[in-house]
Structure formats: C-alpha cells, structure tokens
Amino acid sequence: MASETSGEGGSGRAPGGGPADGGSVRVDAWIWSVRLAKTRSAGATACKGGHVRVNGERVKPAYGVHVGDEVRVRQAGGRERIVVVKRLIRKRVGAPVAVECYVDNSPPPPPREAVAPAGIRDRGTGRPTKRDRREMERLRGAEG
Length: 144
Known about the structure:
Layout: E1 25-26, H1 27-33, H2 40-48, E2 52-54, E3 57-58, E4 64-65, E5 70-74, E6 80-85, H3 95-99, E7 102-104, H4 130-143
Antiparallel strand pairs: 1-4, 2-3, 2-5, 5-6, 6-7
Helix pairs in contact: 1-2
C-alpha cells in the first residue's frame, strides 16, 4: 500500500510534483509554478500585501488552493489576472504545461499607446543641459 505522500512517481501524481485529485497546494507555490509570479518569494510577498485573492478572500501564502478555485492576482502595472485552477502543481514547469493548469478569465490588457521617441539627440552633442532636460520632460509630460 503506497501512501500518496510517500516517494516519487505515484500513479495519482500530476506532472510537476502536484498532488492527486482532492489535494491542495500552497497558493504562493502554485502561482509561482504556473508562472503568475516570477519567484516563489514574490508570490508570498504578493499574498502578504493583499494582492492575491482566492474565491474573493485575501489569503496568506500558506493557504491551500484546490481544483476549481478562482485566484485573482494583481500584478505590476495594475493588471489583474483572474484564473480558475484546473490542475494542481508544486514545481515550476514550462510555459506550455503551465497554461494547461488554469483557465484564464482575465480581461484583455489595455491597448498599448503609441509613444513618441524620448528625445533622440544627435551623436556627439554630449550630455543634455538642464534646459534641454527640462524641455524633454515638458514634452513627455504633455504626451502622457
């Protein structure tokens, strides 16, 4: 009789070291393993900062997510990713496999605005003067 928690290569295990059906995985480890956070510590920091919600509730890094849970992760730039857990994994996997572990219900990102080049200077003119710098800042401020 093999226990689910013992050893490697159990038949009920998902690729990436995930538990068998009905188990749970730490939310910080899961958002890192499906590439919603760059590092696991960044995932834990996001949880501590209140940027991660599971089924509408703010959670701590050790909270266990289950299949079917809705996870909302607020990322840098104000974008919020809304995903539904489809498969649990503990270890980071490649991007094609990671995409299969959740259903992405996020709104599409806002269209990128065309940004004018930030003051291209001629080669050899040296550093901008204080006056030049202020003019460039004024131009950037008028556009954005």
